[in-house]
Amino acid sequence: MEGVDHQEFVQEPQHRPSLSTMEAQGIPVIDLSPITSNNTSPSAMDALTKEIGSACKEWGFFQVTNHGVPVSLRRNLLEASKKFFSQSLEDKKKVSRDESSPSGYYESEYTKDVRDWKEVFDFFAKEPTLFPATIDEHNHRVVQWTNKYPHYPPAFRDIIQEYIEEMEKLAYKLMELIAMSLGLEAKRFERFFIRGQTSFIRLNYYPPCSFPHLALGVGPHKDESALTILAQDEVEGLEVKRKTNQEWVRVKPKSNDYIINLGDIIQVWSNDRYESVEHRAMVNCESERFSIPYFFFPTHDTEVKPLEELINDQNPPKYRPYKSGKFLLYRMINDFKKQNKDNLQIHDYKLA
Ligand code: OGA
Ligand code: NI
């Protein structure tokens, strides 16, 4: 980030991170062995479903162990990511993302119109991924997006494809647990994803920053996904807004765990029983930091709205339906550059 205008990274005073945040009691840690081992008793499944339910309700964020994703795969991808970002800017820009093809490298993303101190590489989980051509509600044209792959390191494509398959398996399992915790049949959510999801994976690289008290790696935001599965390296940075007291809580890296957070789509599906929670990533002066979120998204033409089973006369729908792909496209365009206007939020679909 040499030679850039530092001013555009500076957060408004109320968003500036406190560098002395106390280590609060962390987010729940949940052992997934009942769904990753062979013989599981119904009572163990029951207990797990309850744990998931309270984590979703009280935090919207949790950490999972014994998740079944091979450790070597995650390590290989983190190493490949490190190698890719260590290249010169010129080399990285050879695989830049652009408005016609949003997969690729990008070095300046804006969250809520302040520049993030990070570099990213985005890949779609499915190739090609079908997306609406424009955000115009009346235009039904669809485009196919394909990935750009780095030339270096050489095995990148194989590693990331293998990793994506593992993320998908885990995401489906988690969605089943979440469905059961809401009293729905286990496969209730599957239909929204199997006909061509718009899920994508992001490599985040946060370079060391000389003014960590003023900037953020990712500004405060909620993920617009159904669910996010995040791998972070051993450097701290992720913070979660605790629902009970609105304080920022640091999420301590735990070797091979994954961090799961609910996104906007589950909030709408569950008619606010489970909320998408605000989070951000801090930067620091000494160490670079890497993280890899996988954002699990339904098919672009999914009409997102509160599920029928979860609404009734006493609990009417709180949102009007919106198209998953149009919303995501709007946000992708918006994050791409400074717009000087408020971003679209699911709040905008809220019924009075
Ligand atoms: C994100 C995100 C957190 C992190 O990319 O949406 O929240 O720790 N990242 O990198
Ligand atoms: Ni996020």
Summarize the SSE layout with pairings.
Elements: E1 29-31, H1 33-36, H2 42-58, E2 61-65, H3 71-85, H4 89-92, E3 104-106, E4 110-111, E5 114-115, E6 119-124, E7 129-132, E8 142-145, H5 156-181, E9 200-206, E10 218-221, E11 227-232, E12 238-241, E13 248-250, E14 258-262, H6 264-269, E15 279-281, E16 289-296, E17 303-304, E18 322-323, H7 324-336
Parallel strand pairs: 1-2
Antiparallel strand pairs: 2-14, 3-6, 4-5, 6-9, 7-8, 9-16, 10-15, 11-14, 11-16, 12-13, 12-15, 17-18
The structure holds N-oxalylglycine (OGA) and nickel (II) ion.
Whole-number mean pLDDT:
91
Tell me roughly what share of residues is in helical segments. Answer: 10-25%
Number of helices: 7
Helix-strand sequence = EHHEHHEEEEEEHEEEEEEHEEEEH
Give, in spatial order, the strands making up the sheet with the most strands: 1-2-14-11-16-9-6-3
Uncertain residue segments: none
Question: What is the β-strand count?
Answer: 18
Measured between the Cα atoms of the first and last residue, the distance is 44 Å
Rg, alpha carbons: 20 Å
Taken as a percent bin, the fraction of beta residues is: 15-25%
What's the shape? globular
Tell me the quaternary state.
Answer: single chain
Bound molecules: N-oxalylglycine, nickel (II) ion
Classification by helices and strands: alpha+beta
Largest sheet: 8 strands, mixed
